[in-house]
């Protein structure tokens, strides 16, 4: 009987190790979810050594961790629903701006799945060179190109949506900065604000952007609205 008992205990330990390894492997591949967490806990309880049972404090800790995982998943789901609702409200409000005159900063634009992004800058005087730098949300410059025209006044430019390596940049919001210099190398003042009549709204990229002439201004960049 003693030999049988030892063999059963050994078998249980082997099963526990196998079950635990399977769950751990799944967790490493797909992340540890509530179901995997529960399977792991049940495997530990079912195959624990009778002579060295699972510590009660450790069991409570694991149950607390399971609860935390479930709460985080619930929060993530609710935040996703809130984001969707907020974007819908912004879309409805932005459509009411068509036909109104707005002022905003055209230093950023939403890049969609296709096409490019158009913006504008005003040069205080004619420049010898003018370079546009495109930065992603992390602040890293992904592309630079020359401004098509360097004469004084408002200049419209379009980014084709490609990075310096020629690849398509991911969808999202990108920021434009313009550096202009005259023949002596002195910086020329630039202004990326724009005022004009809203002729349309672009929802490509996830957030609304107002179409003002040839340029687009993100709704979040609008500073004034008038009839």
Structure report:
Helix content is 36%, strand content 32%. With 227 residues, the chain is α+β, with helices and mostly antiparallel strands. The chain folds into two domains: 2-92, no CATH class; 98-226, Immunoglobulin-like, CATH 2.60.40. The strands form three sheets. Strands 12-11-10-1-13 form a five-stranded antiparallel beta sheet, with no helix packed on it. Strands 2, 4, 5, 7 and 8 form a five-stranded antiparallel beta sheet that branches. Strands 6-3-9 form a three-stranded antiparallel beta sheet, with no helix packed on it. A hairpin with a 6-residue loop joins strand 10 (193-202) and strand 11 (209-212). Helix 1 runs antiparallel to helix 2 and helix 2 packs antiparallel against helix 3. The longest helix is centred in the first third of the chain and has 40 residues, at 56-95. The chain is elongated and about 85 Å long.
How many angstroms separate the termini?
A: 93 Å
Helix content: 25-40%
Q: Structural class of the secondary structure composition?
A: alpha+beta
How many alpha or pi helices? Answer: 3
Low-confidence stretches: 1-29
Task: Provide the domain count.
Answer: 2
Task: Give, in order, the helices and strands.
Answer: HHHEEEEEEEEEEEEE
Outline, from the CA principal axes? elongated
């Amino acid at each position: 009987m003693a030999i049988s008992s030892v063999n059963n205990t050994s078998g249980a330990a082997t099963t526990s190790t196998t079950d635990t390894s399977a769950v751990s492997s799944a967790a490493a591949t797909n992340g540890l979810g509530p179901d995997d967490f529960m399977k792991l806990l049940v495997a530990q309880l079912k195959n624990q050594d009778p002579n060295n049972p699972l510590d009660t404090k450790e069991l409570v800790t694991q149950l607390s961790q399971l609860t935390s995982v479930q709460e985080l998943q619930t929060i993530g789901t609710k935040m996703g629903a809130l984001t969707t609702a907020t974007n819908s409200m912004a879309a409805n409000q932005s459509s009411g701006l068509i036909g109104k005159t707005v002022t905003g900063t055209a230093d950023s634009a939403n890049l969609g799945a296709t096409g490019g992004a158009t913006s504008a800058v005003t040069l205080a005087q004619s420049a010898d060179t003018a370079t546009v730098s495109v930065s992603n949300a992390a602040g890293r410059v992904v592309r630079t190109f020359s401004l098509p025209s360097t004469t004084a006044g408002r200049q419209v430019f379009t980014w084709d949506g490609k990075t310096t390596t020629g690849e398509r940049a991911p969808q999202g919001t990108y920021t434009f900065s313009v550096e202009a210099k005259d023949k002596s190398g002195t910086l020329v003042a630039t202004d990326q604000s724009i005022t004009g009549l809203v002729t349309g709204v672009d929802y490509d990229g996830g957030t609304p952007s107002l179409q003002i002439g040839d340029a687009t201004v993100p709704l979040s960049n609008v500073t004034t609205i008038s009839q």
